[in-house]
Write a structure and sequence with these properties.
The complex is a heterodimer of chains A (319) and B (384). Chain A is an alpha+beta fold and 319 residues long. Chain A is built from ten helices and ten strands. In chain A, strands 1, 2, 3, 4, 5, 6, 7 and 8 form an eight-stranded mixed β-sheet that branches. Helices cover 48% and strands 14% of the residues of chain B. Chain B has 14 helices and eight strands. In chain B, strand 2 and strand 3 form a beta hairpin. The chains are: A alpha+beta (319), B alpha+beta (384). At the A-B interface, helix 6, helix 7, helix 8 and helix 10 of A face helix 4, helix 9, helix 10, helix 11 and helix 14 of B.
């Protein structure tokens, strides 16, 4: 993307994420041509939007679109079903013509909509389109009601008469989705750090700002190190585009965000525990984002187990 | 070397032709000992590798022509150290001292002095050391008291340094001295380039926890240093030190990452499956990967001519975290080797485990790095 165009794009996204959320943000993204930008330059489109969305605590259905794009089905703006929380297997399972679905969607489905479900079969993963009316949809409240997730389930759906499923690369979709989530976790972390930093400078105890106490300073320094570490892992993951490095970036970003939430909550202390201070919304968001497509802990354990099996470290990004 | 001296070479070309050369010269470059070797053996090996890589031109790449280099991107220096470390041909900590000391000479020494001296360092003729820390001056570097007094013919230095790496092997020392009043703090420091065979210098190696006596105490008793051995302006030594420190956190850390990666792969090669905790192995791998990714970005910023500053403290914190994480895993996965093994391989694991404890102490402790991050990167104001 050219520099002028890029600046304009970023300004547009910043304004959109700061002023809109949910369906209004989806509409702004369409207006800004975000999906078209993703087709041309996925790195710029994904990294910019998701970091800003995280910073602003905004929500959109962009994650579903990221997954659809990675599946090569990006032209159909429909409800895209993601894995259930903590998991990264395909949300559907196809047994003959019968489809079972257990997953999440990033926006409420409208009547007459279709849902894109990737389902595992005995041979491969295939993308199936089903009418949302055939699925059970539950608006999730959970720890982060503001996120607007929808739980999508379905049992023994008859797929007779559906167009035959296309074989897709689900691992690639998970990888790109993880990069998007990792950027959103970084954005979420950056806002938590900024809230805690400002509080540390403003809050006076013992006659001086608490930012002057080393215990507070070191917590915040440690927080920044974690965030920078996640940024570095993300940069490497975009350069090498392997599923392994995307998984690492998601795990590093998830761990950093949880550490950030802990340190910032501690620095913000009482005020950060109230519902009137914005911190809690970012703490809630962190928990859910870390869970989507696998928590830091579960991804890490799976990577470790795979390495013990193969006795090989993930390939190194050259200098 | 396929390219004539002076010809431009990009990093991809450098990497592939160096890899071929290292393979072709494998036996000439190999150390003559098993395991880690003694300190004397390691130093002899380092000098040999420097000489061979200098003669073949590799070592001259990425250094300016006015100090005997062949020019080109500094990424070549990063890759050379990485490639030598990955093949276990050098001790990366000793090798990388060049990456700190040579840039200081290039930036601050009189040009003819830099032109005469830097090639000696690069080609393994000489070892240099860095005289910063003192018994009363650890984290608070500006409090140093090793005194240099102007005399008619130059400087007279009296005082003591400590934790001076490789001082017993060194022909030269980049030395920080107090030339202002004792209260002048960072305003009264002068950097000097001192011949280690000058009368009045005594070096006493320190026995360490991990084994090799690579650090020394260095005593200066009325040591004469000519005036033209002043680095930068008299009284401006703090700037020399501050410009040098980010170098400690750039190319050297990239080399160290290559070392940690090799050792992590080696522990994965030999550890019994039941001694490896998947959660720990996964996290260590991720931390090291992220550290390396961070350092990679720093190498590219340096190659683009960007000034390296306090943001390199993040790199140093990540090195310490990664190095200790890797060797904590080693102590767990190879517990018998680390604790009761006495063969050369076990001794090397043990030495490196013990040395990893220092990663959060040397080159600015973990606490000092966090102070820098809080003050300079988070702008949290003064800490008192």
């Amino acid at each position: 993307m050219e520099a002028d165009l890029f600046d304009q794009f970023v300004r547009g996204l910043r304004h959109a994420t700061e002023h809109h959320t949910g369906e209004a943000l989806d509409a702004s993204l369409e207006e800004l041509g975000w999906r078209v930008a993703m087709a041309h330059d996925p790195r710029v489109a994904v990294s910019t939007l998701f970091e800003l969305q995280g910073r602003a605590n905004a929500t959109s259905s962009a994650l579903g679109q990221v997954v659809a794009h990675a599946l090569g089905l990006g032209d159909e703006p429909e409800t895209v079903v993601l894995s259930p929380i903590g998991q990264w297997y395909p949300p559907g399972a196809l047994d003959g013509l019968h489809l079972g679905v257990d997953g999440l969607a990033t926006r409420p489905a409208r009547s007459g909509d279709t849902a894109l479900v990737v389902a595992s079969t005995s041979e491969s993963d295939v993308a199936v389109t089903v009418a949302t009316s055939s699925l059970r949809l539950r608006q999730v409240v959970g720890v982060d009601p503001g996120l607007g997730l929808v739980q999508v389930t379905g049992l023994g759906l008859d797929t007779t008469g559906q167009s035959e499923g296309v074989t897709v690369d689900w691992a690639a979709a998970v990888a790109l989705g993880r990069l998007a989530l990792a950027h959103e976790l970084v954005g979420t972390s950056r806002t938590m750090l900024e809230l805690a930093r400002q509080h540390a400078l403003d809050r006076i105890q013992f006659g001086r700002p608490i930012a002057s106490f080393q215990a507070v300073r070191h917590r915040l320094a440690e927080t920044l190190v974690g965030i920078e570490m996640a940024e570095a892992a993300l940069e490497a993951a975009w350069l090498d585009r392997s599923t392994d490095t995307a998984a690492m970036a998601k795990a590093v970003a998830g761990r950093a965000a949880r550490t950030t939430a802990r340190h910032c909550q501690q620095v913000l202390a009482g005020i950060g525990f109230t519902a009137e201070h914005p911190l809690h919304r970012f703490v809630r968001r962190t928990l859910v984002l870390d869970g989507m497509f696998g928590t830091a802990a579960s991804i890490t354990r799976a990577q470790g187990a795979a390495m013990i099996d193969s006795r090989a470290l993930p390939p190194l990004l050259p200098l | 070397m396929t390219n004539p001296p002076g010809a431009a070479m990009d990093i991809g070309e450098f990497r592939s032709s160096l890899d071929v050369w290292l393979e072709d010269n494998r036996s000439a470059l190999a150390p003559a000992y098993e395991g880690g070797g003694t300190l004397d053996q390691q130093m002899a090996q380092l000098a040999k590798v420097r000489r061979l890589t200098y003669e073949a031109g590799w070592m001259r790449r990425g250094w300016p022509e006015r100090v005997g280099g062949l020019g080109g991107t500094t990424l070549m220096r990063a890759y050379l150290g990485e490639a030598l470390t990955a093949r276990d041909l050098i001790e990366p900590g000793f090798y990388s001292m060049t990456e700190v000391l040579a840039p200081t000479m290039i930036d601050y020494a009189p040009p003819e002095l830099a032109a005469a001296m830097v090639p000696e360092l690069l080609r393994g003729e000489e070892t240099w050391c860095q005289g910063f820390s003192e018994p009363g001056t650890g984290s608070n570097l500006a409090s140093l008291s090793c005194r240099a007094v102007r005399s008619d013919e130059g400087w007279r230095v009296t005082g003591q340094k400590v934790w001076t790496s490789l001082a017993q092997y060194a022909q030269r020392c980049v030395l920080l001295t107090r030339t202002g009043t004792p209260e002048s703090a960072h305003k009264g420091i002068t950097a000097l380039f001192v011949d280690m065979d000058s009368p009045g210098i005594t070096v006493r190696p320190i026995d360490t926890m991990h084994g090799p006596a690579e650090f020394s105490e260095v005593f200066f008793d009325q040591v004469h240093v000519p005036l033209d051995r002043t680095l930068g302006q008299p009284g401006a030594g703090w700037a020399v030190a501050m410009d040098l420190l980010p170098y400690e956190r750039s190319t050297s850390l990239w080399h160290r990452a290559a070392f940690l990666h090799r050792r992590l792969q080696e522990v994965l090669d030999v550890a019994p499956a039941e001694a490896l905790d998947p959660a720990v192995l996964g996290e260590v791998t991720q931390v090291l990967y992220a550290f390396r990714a961070r350092s990679r970005a720093t190498q590219h910023r340096m190659a683009a001519g960007e000034h390296l500053g306090p943001e390199t403290s993040v790199d140093k914190v990540l090195l310490a975290t990664s190095e200790q994480a890797v060797f904590d895993l080693v102590a767990e996965a190879l517990a018998p080797e680390v604790t009761v093994g006495d063969d050369p391989a076990s001794e090397q694991w043990r030495t490196q485990y013990l040395y990893s404890r220092a990663a959060s102490i040397y080159g600015g402790s973990a606490e000092i790095q966090r102070n820098i991050i809080a003050r300079r990167l988070l702008d949290l104001g003064a800490d008192r």
